Amino acid sequence: MRRPFWFFWISACVLWTIPGMGTSAGAEALKPCRVVGIKTEVQCGVVSRALDPAQPDGTHIDVHYVVVPALARRKRPDPVFLLAGGPGQSAIQVAPMMLQLLSRLNNRRDLVFVDQRGTGRSAPLKCEDQRHRPLAEQLDAGLRDAFISRCLAQLKKLPYGDLRHFTTTVAMQDIDAVRQALGAPTIDLIGASYGTRAALEYMRQFPNAVRRSVLDGVAPPDMTLPVSFSTDGQTAFNALLEACEREPACHASHPGLRTDWSRLLVSLPLSMPVTHPMTGQTEQLTITREIVLGLVRSSLYSPVAASALPVAISEAARGRWSAMIGLSVASESRRAGELAWGMHFSVICAEDAPRMKQANGATDIPGNDFGVEFGRFYARICADWPRAEVRAAFYTVPPTPASTLLLSGGLDPVTPPRHGERVALALGSKARHVVVPNAGHGVMALGCMRDVLVRFIDAADDVAAAALDTGCATRIPRPPAFMPVSAAYDGAAGAKAAP
Questions:
Q1: What pLDDT score does 226 carry?
Q2: In terms of pLDDT, which residue wins out, 53 or 367?
Q3: Which of 8, 29, 283, 292 has the smallest CB count inside 10 Å?
Q4: Segments forming the whole domain that contains residue 287
Q5: For 353-383, b where at least 16 C-beta lie within 10 A, e where not — what string?
Q6: In this model, does residue 19 exceed pLDDT 60?
Q7: Is residue 144 assigned to a domain?
Q8: Is residue 386 assigned to a domain?
Q9: Is 86 left (phi over 0), alpha (psi -120 to 50) or beta?
């Protein structure tokens, strides 16, 4: 997912019934439509939902969704719902990419992509695209905070600008309205990253509506994201340094990697000319510790990208920053879709920010290098951001009657296995946690894990789903450290041959 440069610094579920949140009687029927990136015709639908659940006769918003019909004539009755990440990602926007992964499931099941309220086509809460603006405007803390303040003022002017009504709890009631509109007695859930928090909340509110659930990169409701950013990012970075020391080629090329890293941090802030990766223009930029940590954390999401960090760190320690900045841009560009930042902050400020001061347990000690700056950033933004009052039940994970497969990457800097482990215990006997030791953030698209996902959803019963062989997860290798290829230059090679 592509994000503004300032995201490199900050980054990347007891039932109750609320009146007026049922399916709208005027929900439109599915209509044939086209979605950019999908070759075939699909079906589009919309349900009208109360912005404020307590005011069913007040402002309404349209929640849009796309259905990719099953290929088989006699399809299964349980469609697969994809819950996107972020928070702030559009499910419809990532549908073309996910179709490649879920094509086998689509043989016998409809695939449903719902733009969660605040994202995509569903009352979007988007800020101005900053990717082509000068780097200083994107990365300077004061300018960045001012930009978000301006965005907040603009969002409040929207017809649906009461930002207190975009929480995960209300959004999952929208998802169930789509399920009812489609006439599906049960559904299969696939959630990725923040989508796992959304899936857990749906399972909590509507436990009997879920047949199977796959949670990839588990972000539980009590995770307190801004604090975990530091703790889990530091753990992943330490693992990278240790891996380089164990790998002969990496250690030989970067014997002083830890020293280079320390020297790099001590040298900051540093003002120097930098080439903007989007415009190609050279700018004078003050590179701070927070900027560098954001660039590093962004690369840690993918082990392939992280394999080039030793080179990038060594280069930056010697005043050459192109590799570090270019690597982070490449890491971010591989992710699909642009985040709706207004929805992102509406969720984090309501669900995570109030609990930041409580997150001081042994498992959430800020990283030595990564510190507490991620948390401070969100604290500043959330101080002025309108926020909903989140009920205590939201932070609980009750046992589930649905077979659930939890997936974690051992090298994940944001949703590592420690989160998946405790959620699996809370969900109970029908939950199974699989760790892919050498994977980063998101594992269901890796090699054999695609087949694991399909076989889990397609299993005839819960016994067969529980007996699924996932041994292949341990055989996915970690990419070796990237070694630049340098060809020896022969001055005579380009010379014109003598007649």
A1: 83
A2: 53
A3: 29
A4: 254-333
A5: bebbeebeeeebebbebbeebbbebbeebbe
A6: no
A7: no
A8: no
A9: left
